[in-house]
Structures are given as structure tokens and as C-alpha cells.
């Protein structure tokens, strides 16, 4: 038993002791909101207070979401935009880098627009802008996505050719109203018109630096080649309707590389920004639109991109940006510093935690809690619209979504180091849908995807990590891909090396046909 003793203490020392310290959690009145005007997220970890998010409580409606693969990040995004549609009749546009959301959007009755798979977006569309303004946007986009800034003469020639293309199509460069003599809307030029202008200059032979002209033409041709002219034909995407069609997935997975995807993402944001600028912000109208950018590092990292500009301008527009990534360093610091809300799911790597803690200025205690978060649990950092004297970073037990969050587990107990158990968690967890998505990305067909998920279900959603690796390799998944997945769910490099060593040893005693039976028997 403990002993109770009495001692003398000076008043000065007593005053230094903080007997009543409020836990890192805002008061209830900052967490609970009118359910008809807010989105319910979940209960806080300390006092179990129901937390509901509303744009009216924060400095601006823009949001960041970060967390390792399988931590519940995508589940949160889906829950958030679903509830926003119920509460505010909010439209949602997902700029879908990897095609991750398209199946879910189809299942929920939304619309999928697949660039690179039959849909086109004319880079020279105006979207209600003046040609002069659109030209500036196009050149800024090319500067972000290519190295054109290193070649000022090629940049000048390209800009000049785009301007001439508008003029030859009867457009007035400083006017938003573009109609012909009969009052009909003019058809905008395309990059193929720009290409022809540069080709004609070369044929004329009057330019004193032909090499610069040829290089400028080569740059334009990268986007006009047959089969890759996704931005060089008249638009099939309805720029007016896409922001008012409920749930829309702009699937960019069919585009050949990050430059093409970045071009699509930035162009769409520019059109949306201009449309919303005309309408202006009004808190009484709720959120008209949520634009989701998931893993769009090419345009979320650059300080000069429209993503950063929109977030910095706060409430100026009648829509919210929701920027999500596994890697926080793929999101510009200016975004974290200016968004109204950040939702942080499980983060394992120290350099990612360093970046977040420096940018958001949360405590060492909160940093430790974030590194231990279970699947679906998160920390929330809020920039409240009114001055606060309490912690603006707090913990949510688990996001309570529209449907149960289905969890799978890899058991690590079989991995030994120096004759003893590894000093780490005995299991790692991830979303069932995240696993299926990754398996598809590895080239597995639906039969094999369902077979693997069924094996998890038969073992109460658990599988030994060594058996998991052997099973994936049986289906032809390379170790590079397996390593990437294991790292993304928080397993350290040294442990992954140990896993592969033990998998090799175990495989020596098994025939290929015996592997599934052994997994089921474990």
C-alpha cells in the first residue's frame, strides 16, 4: 500500500503546480452544432462529445486530410461528401488521380467522366473568362507542369501563338462576350490551331531563331499527337453542368502521366474558380460544391498552383477544396497554414510528423497520439473563426460513417528478432476497400481479389503477414509492389526484410498448391 505523508510547501512552489489542466479538447459549444446545418464526424476521445463540422465555425471551408494507406482517409472523404449532400444539397466533384473513387461513385448513382477514355477537355476553353486571362492561366499551368520557364523565348512564342489562335477565331482578347455577327457563341480554337500557327511560322522562314521555334512547336505537339490529344479537341465535358450534377468523378487514370493529369486538374480548377468568383460567397447558401483532390501531389505541392491560391483566398468562393494525401509533404505548407480544418489519420513516419507538427503547431503529446491512432481514428486541427484560448487540435475516437468501416488485419506475431518478439504492435490494420483497390492496381483480376478477401473473412478478418506475402507472390505480385503496400500501412523497412526472409524459408517447404490450404489452417 502507498503511504500518505504531510510536508511543508512554499506558496511559490504551490502556485507552479497546475492541479486543474483542461485536456486538449475545445469546449462543447465549439464541437456541437445544429444537426440540420452541420456534418457529424464522431465523438471526441476525452469527453466523448459528439463533434459536428460546419463551415460557419471555421475561418474558411477548405480541408486537408492526411493519413497512411488504409487508415480511414478515403472512408472519411466518402462520408463527408455524402453527408454534405444531405445537409446542404452540396454538389461534389472528385478530381480522381488514380480512378480510386469511380466504382463508388457509380454505385451511389453519381456520374463518371473519364478523360483519356472518350472524354475531352479543350485547354483553350474560356469557361466565362476573357481570352487574355485564360492565356495567363494556361502559361502558368505549363510553367508548373513543364520546364518552359527555363526557355523564355519558347514561352513567348507559345503564348504569342495561343493569342493569335483566339484572334483568328474572331475572339476579342479583352471581352467575356464572344459571339459572331448573328449573335451565336463563337467556337474556341484548340491546341491544334496553335500547332498550325507555329508550323506556318517555320515554313515562312522569317524568324531569326528557328531552333527556338521548332522547340516551341515540339512542346505543343506533346498534347496534340493522335491518341494523346485529350486537350486539343473541342470539349465533351460540360463545364457548366459538371458543378451542378450531384456527385461527379472526373477520372484521370486513363491519362498517360502526371503532366497530363496535372493539366486536367489545374484546368478544371481554373474553370470552377472563375464560375464561383462570379457568384460570390454567401454563408446563407451553404456549400454549393466540394472539390476533392486526392493524391494530386503534382498540383498540390507547387506554391504557385491554383490549389494554393484558392485556399489562401479563403471564403472568396462558394465552394470548398478537400485536399487528401498519404504523404503530408506532398501538400504545400501554405495549404496546411490556410485551410480551416485538417483531419489527421494515422501517420507513422517521423519526417511526416515533423512536417505536420511544425506547420500546425500541435503539442508533443498530440504527436505521440497521432502515431498510435487506430484505423478510423483521427486528430482534428481547427482554425476557428473566433479567437480561442483552448487547444485547436483534438482527437476523435473513430469516424462514424454512413456504413460500417470494414477492417482487415495482418498479424506480425510470427516475426521474431534476436529470438524475441518485435517491439511493435502485434497487428496492423487497414480498410478492406483499400486492400481491394491496391490488389487491382497490382494487376489482379476480380476473381483473385475476391479470393484473397474471402481468405481474410474466413480467418475472422486476420491473416499472418508471411502467408499474406506468399499468397500475393503466388498471384504474380512483385516484391516492389508488396513492399510499397506494407510500408504504406506502417510496417518498417527492417521488419519487411525479415518478412520476406521468413516467407522464402516457409515457401521452400510448400508446393504452390498447398499454400492456400496452409493459410486457411493457420
Could you give a short description of this structure?
By secondary structure, the protein is an alpha/beta fold. The chain is built from 20 helices and 16 strands. 41% of the residues lie in helices and 14% in strands.
Protein architecture, described:
- This protein has 522 residues and is an alpha/beta fold.
- The chain has three domains: 246 residues, P-loop containing nucleotide triphosphate hydrolases (Rossmann fold), CATH 3.40.50; 91 residues, no CATH class; 115 residues, no CATH class.
- 41% of the residues lie in helices and 14% in strands.
- The chain has 20 helices and 16 strands.
- The strands form four sheets. Strands 5-6-4-7-8-3-9-10-11 form a nine-stranded mixed β-sheet, sandwiched between helices.
- Strand 1 and strand 2 form a beta hairpin.
- Helix 6 crosses helix 7, helix 7 runs antiparallel to helix 8 and helix 17 crosses helix 19.
- The longest helix is centred in the middle third of the chain and has 22 residues.
- The chain is globular.
- About 1% of the residues have low confidence.
Amino acid at each position: 500500500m502507498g503511504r500518505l505523508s504531510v510536508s511543508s510547501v512554499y506558496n511559490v512552489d504551490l502556485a507552479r503546480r497546475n492541479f486543474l489542466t483542461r485536456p486538449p479538447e475545445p469546449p462543447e459549444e465549439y464541437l456541437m452544432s445544429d444537426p440540420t446545418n452541420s456534418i457529424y464526424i464522431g465523438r471526441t476521445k476525452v469527453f466523448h462529445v459528439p463533434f459536428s463540422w460546419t463551415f460557419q465555425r471555421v475561418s474558411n471551408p477548405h480541408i486537408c486530410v492526411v493519413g497512411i494507406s488504409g487508415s480511414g482517409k478515403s472512408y472519411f472523404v466518402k462520408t463527408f461528401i455524402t453527408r454534405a449532400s444531405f445537409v446542404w444539397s452540396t454538389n461534389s466533384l472528385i478530381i480522381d488521380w488514380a480512378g480510386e473513387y469511380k466504382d463508388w461513385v457509380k454505385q451511389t448513382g453519381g456520374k463518371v467522366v473519364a478523360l483519356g477514355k472518350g472524354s475531352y477537355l479543350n485547354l483553350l476553353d474560356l469557361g466565362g473568362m476573357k481570352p487574355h486571362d485564360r492565356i495567363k492561366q494556361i502559361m502558368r499551368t505549363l510553367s508548373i507542369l513543364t520546364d518552359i520557364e527555363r526557355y523564355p523565348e519558347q514561352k513567348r512564342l507559345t503564348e504569342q501563338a495561343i493569342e493569335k489562335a483566339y484572334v483568328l477565331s474572331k475572339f476579342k482578347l479583352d471581352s467575356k462576350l464572344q459571339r459572331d455577327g448573328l449573335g451565336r457563341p463563337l467556337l474556341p480554337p484548340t491546341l491544334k490551331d496553335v500547332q498550325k500557327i507555329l508550323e506556318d511560322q517555320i515554313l515562312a522562314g522569317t524568324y531569326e531563331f528557328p531552333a527556338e521555334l521548332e522547340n516551341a512547336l515540339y512542346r505543343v505537339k506533346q498534347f496534340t499527337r493522335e491518341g494523346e490529344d485529350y486537350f486539343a479537341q473541342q470539349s465533351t465535358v460540360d463545364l457548366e453542368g459538371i458543378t451542378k450534377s450531384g456527385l461527379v468523378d472526373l477520372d484521370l487514370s486513363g491519362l498517360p502521366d502526371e503532366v497530363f493529369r496535372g493539366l486536367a486538374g489545374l484546368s478544371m480548377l481554373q474553370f470552377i474558380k472563375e464560375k464561383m468568383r462570379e457568384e460570390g460567397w454567401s454563408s446563407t447558401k451553404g456549400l454549393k460544391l466540394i472539390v476533392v483532390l486526392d493524391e494530386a501531389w503534382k498540383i498540390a505541392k507547387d506554391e504557385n498552383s491554383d490549389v494554393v491560391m484558392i485556399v489562401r483566398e479563403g471564403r472568396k468562393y462558394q465552394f470548398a477544396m478537400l485536399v487528401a494525401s498519404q504523404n503530408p509533404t506532398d501538400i504545400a505548407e501554405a495549404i496546411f497554414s490556410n485551410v480551416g480544418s485538417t483531419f489527421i489519420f494515422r501517420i507513422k513516419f517521423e519526417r511526416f510528423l515533423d512536417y505536420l507538427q511544425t506547420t500546425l503547431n500541435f503539442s508533443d503529446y498530440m504527436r505521440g497520439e497521432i502515431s498510435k491512432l487506430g484505423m478510423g481514428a483521427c486528430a482534428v486541427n481547427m482554425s476557428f473563426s473566433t479567437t480561442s484560448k483552448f487547444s485547436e487540435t483534438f482527437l476523435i475516437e473513430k469516424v462514424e460513417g454512413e456504413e460500417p468501416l470494414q477492417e482487415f488485419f495482418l498479424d506480425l506475431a510470427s516475426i521474431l528478432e534476436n529470438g524475441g518478439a518485435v517491439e511493435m504492435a502485434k497487428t496492423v490494420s487497414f480498410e478492406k476497400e483499400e486492400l481491394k483497390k491496391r490488389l487491382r492496381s497490382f494487376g489482379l483480376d476480380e476473381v483473385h481479389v475476391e479470393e484473397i478477401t474471402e481468405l481474410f473473412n474466413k480467418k475472422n478478418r486476420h491473416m499472418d503477414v508471411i502467408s499474406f506475402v506468399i499468397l500475393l507472390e503466388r498471384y504474380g505480385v512483385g516484391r516492389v509492389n508488396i513492399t510499397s503496400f506494407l510500408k504504406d500501412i506502417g510496417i518498417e523497412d527492417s521488419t519487411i526484410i525479415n518478412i520476406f526472409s521468413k516467407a522464402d524459408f516457409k515457401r521452400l517447404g510448400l508446393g504452390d498448391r498447398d499454400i492456400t490450404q496452409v493459410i486457411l489452417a493457420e
